Amino acid sequence: MKNSSLTLPSISVVIPTHNRQASLQRLLDGLGRQTYPFDTMEVVVVSNGCTDGTLKMLREYQPCFSLQIVEQSDLGPGAGRNNGATKAKGEILIFLDDDIEPSPGLVEAHVFAHQKRSGIVVMGYLPPVLEQQSGFIKAELRRWWESKFHAMSQTGHRFTYHDLLSGNFSIRKEHFLRVGGFDTSLRSCFDDLEFGIRLLKSGSCFVYAEEALGYHHESRDLDGLLRRKFQEGLAEVHIGRHHPEVISTLFTKKIADISSPLMKFFVSLVFKFPAAGDWIVRVIRHMLEILEWARLRRPWRFLLDVLMIYWHMRGVSQELKTPEAWLTFNSEASLPTIDEHIEFRLDISEGLEVAEDLMERVQPSRARIYYKHYFVASIPPQGGAEPLRGEHLLPILSELFPVPVLRALAMDHVMGHTPEVERLIADSNAILKRIELAHR
């Protein structure tokens, strides 16, 4: 870095680990190649009930940075992160999972983002390394990971709690402790999403830093993905009980909103005949292999969705027990608070920049958009999302306005003839063209 290390913030990289000696060593080696000064950087590794050679490797490891080793029983990664954060000496905490291989500029990119803006939580980029998978599932995993980060990289992206991934993010230590750290009762998954909900409630701002790159060595195969869906079902019930305002955004609520006969049959299997349901999905699991052998990707993808929904609901049913309890759970989304009833009115007739500035100053949870006295659309409150900011307005307009209206606004000098507006019109044209082709 160009600045003197005397003016740089101290950094603690916190890594919870459980029986991944080789992967952890790869991560430590990558941290040893960082461009950030080592005299202001420490690494805190929390051994979470390791029974392999991890502790021996750590004690013999000779780092070029300060290395702190913390031992605890197998309490889960969330407890490991909390423990490591408590013992960390740095002003800024960078959390990395033990299957991440950091690029040389990862730490510096996190620090740079925090120096540009205070009170933020920085998400780094995690391109997947898929060495243990093959075929359709490899392509599916890559598609999911890349689409996740592509969305966050778009100008005007509205961050939600789903964007917080614990594998590569940073936050100031005082901020982390003030919010309360991770929920240690979520041991299998989604402890990062639950933490993201509380961060956004506290007024935190999420930022995406693509330069904070760490390669994610993804080890899950198809069966691992399905086991994960079961764990996610369990975790969603916990999250919904503690944060009812996000129930409408949970996968289980989206499943409940599907009224097809197939879905009703699946719900009956999950809650009333789970043994029969497990047998049926084992058959479907084998059918995936046949479909992949025949290169029938679309039916393969459909049956994968069926399996993921089933195992997600099996996790939900383990917590909620009956279909009635499940329906009650999905109907318990909390009502808006008093301030959310105040709907912000935004008139775009005075120009896009004026409207963006006003939205940035107010940062409402909901809004009604007008063009002079003509009502255009309503933006409802969204649980688990950051408040509406000025940068969100242009993407929202692209969804709400048809292309002819966009052109009219541009010609009326409301939106101006900026490159962003021209791109907005072009994108809208492309969307309409795809819709027309799909209906022919």
What features would you highlight for this structure?
440 residues; alpha/beta; Spore Coat Polysaccharide Biosynthesis Protein SpsA, Chain A; 12 strands; globular
What order do the helices and strands come in, and which of them pair?
Elements: E1 11-17, H1 21-31, E2 41-48, H2 54-60, E3 66-72, H3 77-87, E4 92-96, E5 100-102, H4 106-116, E6 120-125, E7 128-129, H5 135-153, E8 168-172, H6 173-179, H7 191-201, E9 205-217, H8 222-242, H9 251-256, H10 261-272, H11 274-293, H12 297-320, H13 323-330, E10 344-347, H14 352-362, E11 367-371, E12 374-379, H15 393-400, H16 403-411, H17 419-438
Parallel strand pairs: 1-2, 1-4, 2-3, 6-9, 7-9, 10-11
Antiparallel strand pairs: 4-8, 5-9, 6-8, 11-12
What does this structure look like?
The strands form 2 sheets. Strands 1, 2, 3, 4, 5, 6, 7, 8 and 9 form a 9-stranded mixed sheet that branches. This protein has 3 domains: 7-220, Spore Coat Polysaccharide Biosynthesis Protein SpsA, Chain A, CATH 3.90.550.10; 224-330, no CATH class; 339-438, no CATH class. By secondary structure, it is of the alpha/beta class. It is globular and about 65 Å long. The chain has 17 helices and 12 strands. It has helices spanning 21-31, 54-60, 77-87, 106-116, 135-153, 173-179, 191-201, 222-242, 251-256, 261-272, 274-293, 297-320, 323-330, 352-362, 393-400, 403-411, 419-438, and strands at 11-17, 41-48, 66-72, 92-96, 100-102, 120-125, 128-129, 168-172, 205-217, 344-347, 367-371, 374-379. The N and C termini lie far apart (56 Å). The model has no long low-confidence stretch (mean pLDDT 87). β10 (344-347), α14 and β11 form a beta-alpha-beta unit.
